[in-house]
Amino acid sequence: MSTATNNSTARLPGPDERTNSDVVIYDGHCRICTAQVRKLPWWDCQKKLSYLSLHDPEVQRRYPDLTHDALMKEMYVVDQSGNRHAGADAIRYLTRRLRRLWWAAPALHFPFSRPLWQRAYRWIANRRYQYGKLDQCDEGGTCSLHGPK
Fold this sequence. Notes:
149 residues, alpha+beta, four-stranded mixed β-sheet, 11% strand, globular
């Protein structure tokens, strides 16, 4: 199994290394996504998370129900019970799961705020390649990963 890495030297632990962990599935080709996921180990002081890039074949082996299209739209966290938390709900889940993120939970769980967080997440996710360009993308933002704008 390949491990969740990017161009930096730090390596993120995979689910084989942390067998009783929640698995964060993220876009390992997205500079914005990778930069944010690389911050999670600090927040995860209890080592409750492991990581897989959605481009790793291990994702389809472990989670055949998660399509490539769905994974390209949103980050997923698969918890130890097998529940899937996607996009803003994944971030909300992490604020309850990671002790160091407790401070963000009240804002993310404020009554009736979920649609706002979902819209904000989708807005950023839909523009992640535009703002965090890939090396293989041209100036117009077109590449084999996400097609024409």
